[in-house]
Design goal:
The complex is a heterodimer of chains A (226) and B (186). With 226 residues, chain A is mostly helical. In chain A, helix 3 packs across helix 4. The C terminus of chain A is likely disordered. With 186 residues, chain B is of the alpha/beta class. Chain B contains 8 helices and 6 strands. In chain B, the strands form 2 sheets. Chain B has a 4-stranded mixed sheet with strand order 3-2-1-4. A two-stranded parallel sheet of chain B has the order 5-6. In chain B, helix 6 crosses helix 7. Classes of the chains: A mainly alpha (226), B alpha/beta (186). Chains A and B meet through helix 2, helix 3, helix 5, helix 6 and helix 8 of A and helix 1 and helix 2 of B.
């Protein structure tokens, strides 16, 4: 969606006229900022609040006595850093509240090139995937969103997350692995031809129940003989 | 789910914000005619925030100092704004008085209640807000009215019924009161 970023014309516009340049900045980055906010929180209304707050903070910074140096500014990374800091603060504030309940109501992007059945299927897939994203750790979720939803390069993701590139890659890889496992739990399981069927465990502990809704590893049964 | 299916599905999770979200980030301004000449008016999603004579050219600077948010020109202001300016009647408008002290807001709300063609002294406002000794503070609050003309601080005069200060100038204040039907003796 985003790919390489050449902000030179936006920085020139900001330098020439802060308010009009900021309008161009908003137009250029509103979708990646809103997408990240929506997928990081799972809530449409929170995403609107966080997006507005992010752009207002960015404007206040640009209008301050010590604005970020425009010649070296990477505005997309800068805005997404502000957003994720704002999201983290918001998460702390809501730590004792129940998780967002409107993820199912969040409208997904309409794809008018598909037939209705395919669109409905895509909508279902997106909804399930958005729910699975919410099950990742915040670090993995942010990294996966930046890499695979926004299509940002690794160096930009590392800059946004404030980590080494290797750490960012690790978060992405682990996040994807968890998403794959969660996707598998959503579909009917067909045994692999080379896989022997396992006996169904009978106790809650033996079934490998964890505190989370999605078991992510094959349960192991230990039998101790007296 | 194969890797390509998963990454393709992730790539389809982009979402654009609603167009109206920009109004929570940026405010608008417009240049409009009024009985006192062209005026620049800024408004937010909560209402009219600033009005300044166009010839001063200070709207953007003053707005930014109080609100610290972008101000973008629009050619499509609300219809009721033009009507309010033409008639000097801003009673139907909403106002964004963010950043003002509660005292200043109460003074401006009291001034808003003065109908066209009537004048009152500063002391009348002070009594209306249950602060009868704050006459000078009332004068100061009206002197910093961010929305003159629409919130009619020009209808508040000195106790001896002489004009007093006005952002457009004392002569303009007198002309405006005459325009509204007030008899002003030289």
């Amino acid at each position: 969606m985003s790919g390489p970023d050449d902000p030179s014309h936006l920085l020139a516009a900001l330098d020439e006229d802060l308010d009009n340049g900021f309008t161009a900045l908003y137009d250029a980055y509103r979708t990646p900022v809103f997408t990240t906010a929506l997928r990081a929180t799972g809530s449409w209304s929170d995403a609107e609040d966080l997006t507005a707050e992010t752009f207002l903070r960015a404007y206040r910074s640009l209008a301050s006595d010590r604005p970020p140096p425009l010649p070296t500014l990477r505005p997309r990374a800068w805005l997404l850093t502000i957003l994720l800091n704002t999201v983290r603060n918001d998460r702390r504030g809501k730590a004792r509240k129940p998780p967002p309940g409107d993820i199912d109501a969040a409208p997904e992007r309409a794809d008018h090139t598909q037939d209705p059945a395919r669109t409905a299927e895509l909508h279902e897939t997106n909804r399930a995937l958005a729910a699975h994203l919410a099950a990742l750790t915040p670090a993995q979720r942010d990294a996966v969103i930046l890499r695979h939803v926004l299509d940002l390069p690794i160096d930009e993701i590392a800059a946004i997350l404030g980590t080494a590139e290797g750490t960012a890659k690790s978060h992405i890889s682990r996040g994807l692995a968890t998403l794959r496992r969660l996707a598998c739990t959503d579909r009917p399981q067909t045994p692999h031809p080379h896989e022997r069927p396992r006996p169904e465990p009978t106790t809650r502990r033996a079934r490998g129940h964890t505190t989370g809704p999605h078991p992510i590893s094959t349960p192991t049964i230990e039998v101790h003989h007296a | 789910m194969p890797d390509t299916d998963l990454t393709n599905a992730l790539a389809s999770l982009t979402a654009a914000p609603p167009a109206a979200l920009f109004d929570r980030v940026a405010a608008r301004w417009t240049r409009q005619p009024s009985p006192m000449g062209d005026v620049d008016v800024a408004y937010t999603e909560n209402g009219v925030a600033f009005l300044r004579p166009a010839c001063l050219g200070t709207l953007a600077e003053e707005f930014r100092a109080r609100f610290v948010r972008p101000l973008v020109r629009t050619e499509h202001p609300p219809a009721e704004l033009a009507e309010a300016l033409a008639t000097c009647d801003g009673t139907k408008l909403r106002y964004d008085l963010t950043g003002l002290t509660p005292f200043a807001v109460s003074v401006l709300r009291a001034a808003q209640a003065i109908p066209k063609g009537r004048i009152h002294p500063y002391g009348w406002i002070a009594e209306r807000i249950d602060n009868p000794r704050a006459v000078r503070a009332v004068g100061s609050a009206l002197g910093h009215n961010p929305v003159p003309l629409l919130i009619p601080c020009h209808r508040v005069v000195k106790a001896d019924l002489s004009g007093g200060q006005y952002i457009f100038g004392t002569d303009t204040k007198i002309a405006l009161l005459r325009h509204e039907g007030v008899t002003v003796r030289s």
